[in-house]
Amino acid sequence: MAVLLAASMLSVPATPAMAQDDAAVAAMRDEIARLRAQVAALEERLDLMAAEGSKTGSTPPSAPLSASLTTSQPAPERVASASGSAQPPALAVPAASPPAPAPASGFTLKPRGRLQFDGNIVSRPAGMTEPTLGWSTDVRRAFLGVEGNFGGGLGYRFEMDFASGDPLFTDLWLTYKKGSWTVTLGHDRMTTLEDLTSDLQTSFLERSGFIQAFGFERRLGLSAAYKDSDVVLSAGIYSDDLETLGSGVADNSYSLDTRWVYMPKLGKVQLHLGGSLHHRELNDLADSLRYRARPGARTTSARFVDTGSFSASAETGYGIEFAALRGPFHVAAESYWQNVDRPNLADPTFFGIYGEIGYVFAGGEARGYRAGSFSSIKPTKGIDKGGAGAWQVNLRYDWLDLNDAGVRGGEQAIAGLSLIWVPLEHVKFMANYLHVDVRDTPILSDGRDDYDADVFGLRAQYDF
């Protein structure tokens, strides 16, 4: 082994300077002799380590030391001394191997959050004095939380919204996953396509009128869901939202909810067909049922349609969902009926529907879709890589009818256009224009129950 080392070092091609300098050659021979002695000493130490390892069960290094000394490091260049004669390189010592990583415990923790700033101009119908009409701004959402896994199929999410100044719970749950099944316990929701699409990925600043009016929200409950490549089936039992439960109001209401989705991929078309069913027993909340909706802008507290509070014992809602995506195009439509049980009175059924079409016209491939809801638009080349990000345009018509069986809340139709820019992943800017047409409403404008308004909205958002 020492002979091989000496031969490899002597085989280095001689340079003209070396040939002319006998002193340098003599120095090299002395250095080789010194290296031979060092290698012999090290081999003796390895033999002793091997003998001790056979007694203790440890395994000595199998590769020859000379190989590690000559191949584990790139060959260093020769350096000249102050006298000008070439000096042999210093002996390269192999680096120690890094320690083996500790086995994973299964616990993971990932921070998550989002920040949305909104600004809206809502034109003021004649005679209305609501101060938040006109120009208004708001921190729409300021979420901060964590999510991850405990191991063994158990997962968690803890998230709060700080936008109002007082922290409010949003997602707060534990999950258990086994194969295609997921059981969720906590503050969660089971609603419809658009409501289950994250507010980070909606086509307009606000969701459709019936989602606002019929009180779709997270509630404390227990649910189970089955998901495979083409089907989502879910069912759960819920009480009320945590804010209401913590307000001190007597609240023994509960609801039963279920949703099912069929989502086959037909060639290049992603299809979505779904339905949902909701039944809620109001119990002690029987005298406080109310349905109302803002005109597509959350920064105003004005509502042009509002049933006011009325008595009811229960509500039953049922909806149908449709969507299709192909390349940069998507279409979506939902309708929802909310039937109300009123003791000794006629039972009204309120109704909402929307339809939209969207097109990613630059910088992105398509609107995302995953497991029964829409997901993000990812730019193919963001501004951080010299591109222009992704751009999308959307058209929508939204109708809400809160008049039936003696309950008068009004009718609201909204035609909207939105433009979305995603300059890079996790950053998004939105602008939408809405024309709002109100009819037969108890919220009057100069004594009239039919009028219109215009809304222009902007949003900037970031998430992680």
Describe, in plain words, how this protein is organized in 3D.
InterPro entries: Porin_dom_sf, Porin_O/P. By secondary structure, the protein is mostly beta strands. The chain has two domains: 70 residues, no CATH class; 353 residues, Porin, CATH 2.40.160.10. It contains seven helices and 23 strands. The strands form four sheets. The chain has a 16-stranded antiparallel beta barrel with strand order 3-4-5-6-7-8-9-10-12-15-16-17-20-21-22-23. A two-stranded antiparallel ribbon has the order 1-2. The protein has a two-stranded antiparallel ribbon with strand order 13-14. A hairpin with a 7-residue loop joins β16 and β17. α1 packs antiparallel against α3. The longest helix has 35 residues.
Count of alpha/pi helices: 7
The CATH architecture of the largest domain can be named as Beta Barrel
Question: What helical percentage do the residues reach?
Answer: 10-25%
Shape assignment? elongated
Strand order of the largest sheet: 3-4-5-6-7-8-9-10-12-15-16-17-20-21-22-23
Protein name: Phosphate-selective porin OprO/OprP
Region (Disordered): 52-111
Organism: Sphingobium lignivorans
Coiled coil: 18-52
